[in-house]
Specification:
437 residues, alpha/beta, Rossmann fold, 4 domains, 3-stranded antiparallel sheet, 22 helices, globular, binds adenosine-5'-triphosphate, binds magnesium ion
Amino acid sequence: MLVRFLNETAEKVGREASKRPEVELEPIRAALARVARGDATDSDRLTLQQAAFDGALVVRSDGQSSATSILAGDATSPVEHGDDVARKLREFLLPQRPGRLPPMPQLFLIGRAGALAEIKRRMGISGGQPLHARTVVRGWPGIGKTTLVNAFAYDAQANACFPDGVLWTSLTREPAILSEIAAWGRALGLDGLARSPIIKDAVDQLTKRLADARMLIIVDDVWDAAHAQSFLQCAGQRCGVLLTTRLPAVAEELSPAPDAVYTLPLLREDDGILLLRLLAPAVVAGKHDACLHLVRDLEGLPLALHVAGRLLASEARMGWIVDDLLLRLRDGAAVIDAKAPADRADIEKQTIPTVAALLQQSTDLLDQHTRECFAFLGAFAPKPATFDLDAMAAVWMTDDPKPVVRELAARGLIEPAGGRFQMHALLVAHARSLLDP
Ligand SMILES: Nc1ncnc2c1ncn2[C@@H]1O[C@H](COP(=O)(O)OP(=O)(O)OP(=O)(O)O)[C@@H](O)[C@H]1O
Ligand SMILES: [Mg+2]
């Protein structure tokens, strides 16, 4: 009864409730040994990818050295091997494929076995008839949409289902659509699409080329459904299509059916603490309870946990006491002022944005009145931040809060949750910072 209650409560706040699955060490060890010897099989790839995409196998590299660990429960077993084996392992886990692939993921993916399995089920990747050849992944800023869909580009089951390869693009708010279509063309040996006088000509050529292809198409970071249309049009009947967006209204527009939108959940508490432990092991070992509070306050958002973990680890390396930092991180302000993780670097500008700048991409879409309403909502937010319509009417001093609520929900800045509306803790911190820049 209690378990059911906890599961239902977790569902309401958009988290997975079940426990971390037990990790079987032996198959992972045996597969790793075969990778080192050079006689690993496709089934080893599946075993190791499943472990790597769910935080049971962590492969880390800081450019100079690499470390591989198998994680089971609270125990971490480092796997001793040389750098050449670590490189072989990375190549084995992330095989090159025909087409255009996303940048290599970090191989540091915690708690996403359920999400991967669910998307595979919907798209028919794990067998069975596809429910939706096109699936839209949406969710809070920084929840891990990009990281998840990029893993699909390398996933052994997805590769078997789409043997002709992968075509990936990430759109941003102002995409260069023709040059992205041309890059897809080049990857397929169709040169010169960039010289097409109009996008339609390039799209038509690519559409012909993909008519019978079995490719996985990934269109990440869509801000306007119209931007994705050219890419969708190219996808032949036998292609699978994965799209991501922060924006619920865009997800609906892109989705062939309401249930083709998959809302990516926040990390469970045990996965959140595992992620923090990987990033700042000494801090979590020494201040476990305070770290647990931090994971709860940051509500399982991978972006926030990465930033918090990095800040904690660097203070701890200096030999400093981190109590004060732990407290400052808990209200989110210290997180949004910090730089985002390195994999969020802006490639064009060659800079790493702050977390605040990433969040601001969403609030920039609001008109001034709605942005002010959002900021006030943050200022008056209870913890956890959920509101009913009456509370919002009172904060905004209006009789009819619904138009603003609709707009904030369409932009993914609040989320309907059982008759109330929820704002993620990091967005609360961002909203407050808008009032007090
Ligand atoms: N499951 C995970 N385990 C560990 N780290 C993760 C996980 N998911 C995401 N991350 C890390 O969290 C950060 C945010 O993830 P990501 O960029 O995929 O989020 P997003 O939902 O695509 O964000 P945005 O809405 O800004 O596009 C990245 O640094 C990524 O490496
Ligand atoms: Mg993204």
